[in-house]
């Protein structure tokens, strides 16, 4: 009886601990479609500290990555931050858009920002 009580108490203590986080195997990226002329360079700035995030290769001919799960270590978990996406053509900034991105323990999520830009 005494050993059963100890097992029950141990079970309650273990069950009361914060559960571990289990992340899905998906990879998330916030992308933007450009309805204008193709861009020659894109990059995203972290508005909090001015850092430039990884410069991505073009996703497709008209779709560009703003931010992805690759930046989770840089952004941190359970954060909401603003980022500015810049599109250049021949060394000139032709479009920019501010995005609000939140993170949980595993992935990024777009809170606000355009799905489509018209970069002249």
Pick out its properties.
single chain, alpha+beta, disordered N terminus, 7 strands, 39% strand, 2 helices, elongated, 3-stranded mixed sheet, 4-stranded antiparallel sheet, 120 residues
Structure, described:
This protein is α+β, with helices and mostly antiparallel strands and 120 residues long. The protein has two helices and seven strands. The strands form two sheets. It has a four-stranded antiparallel beta sheet, with no helix packed on it. It has a three-stranded mixed beta sheet with strand order 3-1-7, with no helix packed on it. It is elongated, with a radius of gyration of 21 Å. The protein starts with a helix and ends with a strand.
Query: Beta-strand level of the residues, as a percent range?
Result: 35-45%
| Residue-averaged pLDDT | 83
Structural class: alpha+beta
Count of helical stretches: 2
Give the C-alpha Rg.
21 Å
Shape: elongated
> H/E series, N to C?
HEEEHEEEE
Number of strands: 7
- Main sheet overview: 4 strands, antiparallel
Helicity range: 10-25%
Unreliable residue runs: 2-17
Distance between the termini: 78 Å
Spatial order of strands in the largest sheet:
2-4-5-6
């Amino acid at each position: 009886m005494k050993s059963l009580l100890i097992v029950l108490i141990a079970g309650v203590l273990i069950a009361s601990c914060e559960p571990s986080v289990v992340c899905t195997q998906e990879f998330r990226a916030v992308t933007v479609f450009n309805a204008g002329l193709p861009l020659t360079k894109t990059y995203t700035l972290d508005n909090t500290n001015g850092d430039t995030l990884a410069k991505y290769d073009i996703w497709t001919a008209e779709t560009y990555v703003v931010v992805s799960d690759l930046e989770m270590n840089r952004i941190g978990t359970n954060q909401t931050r603003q980022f500015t996406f810049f599109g250049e053509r021949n060394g000139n900034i032709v479009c920019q858009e501010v995005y609000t991105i939140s993170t949980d323990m595993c992935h990024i999520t777009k809170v606000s920002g355009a799905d489509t830009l018209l970069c002249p």
